[in-house]
Every structure is written in C-alpha cells, then in structure tokens.
Amino acid sequence: MVVKPNVRSALRAVFDVMREGMPDPATLPDNGFDPSFIERAAPVLEFLYSKYFRVRLAGIEHVPANGAALLVGNHSGGLPYDGAMLIYALWRQLHRPLRTLVANFAFHSSWMRPVVARFGGVRASTSNALQLLERGNLVGVFPEGLRGVGKLYRERYRLTHFGRGGFVRLARTAGVPIIPVAIIGAEEIHPVLRKVTTLARPLGLPYIPITPTFPLLGPLGLLPVPTKWSIQFGAPITLPPAVEGKDDTLEAAEAVRGKLDEMITDLLVHRKSIIFG
After folding, report:
1. Given 11, 37, 140, 234, which is the most exposed site by the fewest CB atoms within 10 A?
2. C-alpha 170 chain-centroid distance
C-alpha cells in the first residue's frame, strides 16, 4: 500500500510523540492537552474516518456548538478506535475538542500516556470532569469502561452494567445535559474470542485480546476489520434536580442506558451488512 506523504507525516508525528514520552499529565497545563496534535494527526484520522471505517454521522445537531455537555456512549472494539473516531468526528464537524475520561492504566504506559493526553484524555475522576465542564468543554464518558472495550464477540452490542451512575451525579452537579452516543461497527473490528491478562501487565495493558487474526498473524493481526460505522447523537437529556431524601441516581442511569440501547438496536435493525452498512 502506498502511503500518501501527508498521512506518512501524520503517522511520524504520532510515533514521535510516543517516543518522546510525557511526565504525569496532572502536572502539566490543561492535563497535557495539545489541540495542534489533533491537526497534525488529522490525515491519519481522516483516512480512518472517511475511507477505512466510512463513518456515517447522524444527529450532530444535538451537540451544542458552544457550552458544556456530557456525552455518554457505548464502548467496544478491543482497542479504543471508537473513542478516537468520536473525538475526530466532533473536531471535524464542529471543531470542538472532546475531553474524554480515561482509565488510569492508559496513564501508566509511557507510550500511551502522551498520545492520550495530547488528544484530550484525562484521568477519569469527578474533580477532573467537573473542572472541564465548568470551563464549557464537551466531556465524553463510556460508563461500560474496560468491560465494554473488552467485550467478547459473542457479547457484542449488549451494554454492560453502567456502574453506580457516577455520570448522572456529574451531570447534575455541573448542571449540563447528557447526550447519548450510539456507535455501531466498532464491535466487529477486533472480534475478541478471549483475553490474556498475565502477559499484558508488563506492557501496561489490562489484557491482550485474542482474535481470529491475533496473535496468529503477528502484528498484521492487529489491523482492524474495515467495518462500516455509524455514530449517532441522541437528543439531549436534561435530568430533573435531585429530590432531597430520594436517591434516583441508578434509576436515571438506567434510563440513559435504556435510551442508548434503543438507539443501538435501531441502527442494527437498519444495517444490512457489517462491511457495507
């Protein structure tokens, strides 16, 4: 495959950042976020978005052009391509960064930390999220966490537990709407048959996915299947204020989960092919 010079330069920029490393992002201004890094990596992201996964975007009008909102999405795929494509979709369409809440393991890895931080990822914590929302940012959260991204192929498109409803408390405290985001196509890019945890620890990973092509085909097996993707933003959900003496956090979280499940089901019903959409 012939790589266009601009794509080659973008890949070099990403690999250079991985090699350079980064101190703890918490010690850096804005947690190490570098908007220019998205621009430098844009040719690679654009190739993945428009040529490889051929993303179909819907409901972008539900995302505010200005001001804070909490985007809540399903998570899958073995590797977090879904987060990258969601970040790029918002940058591409609205030129707005999405500050995603990321699990701690990503910041323990010397090669993963600089990429995640420069793209706008921050350690998942209430204090970090509140600060970002108070400054008018779009904040992205995947309540399924590692359970979602590491789902086995037989469990695809089944939403796992949404935790204890932390995102509901976050939205209420910040006074921002929740925007559900359904992502279809990522479940099939790395069909995870099982996971190995012991060998993953020295690499700073939570697990190593075993797929039909990896590790059988070596590094080539890490290439994602070129599935056809859909990303759909739902109408904003404004939560009613909490009632004193009544904790409906889990109920509200399940309502958001139910809406997201409904959106995913609708997209799947209208999808005719995993590869062609």
Report:
1. 11
2. 18
Give the Cα separation of 111 and 132 in Å (integer): 25
Say if residues 137 and 128 touch (Cβ distance below 8 Å).
no
Q: What is the pTM of this model?
A: 0.91
| CA–CA separation, 178 and 168 (whole Å) | 8
pLDDT digit string, tens, across residues 14-59: 888 899 889 999 999 999 999 999 999 999 999 999 999 999 999 9
CA distance 147 to 186: 14
Taking Cα atoms as reference points, which of 18, 34, 15, 27 lies closest to residue 119?
34
Compute CA 213 distance to the chain's CA centroid, rounded to the nearest angstrom.
23
Decide if 146 contacts 163 (C-beta within 8 A). no
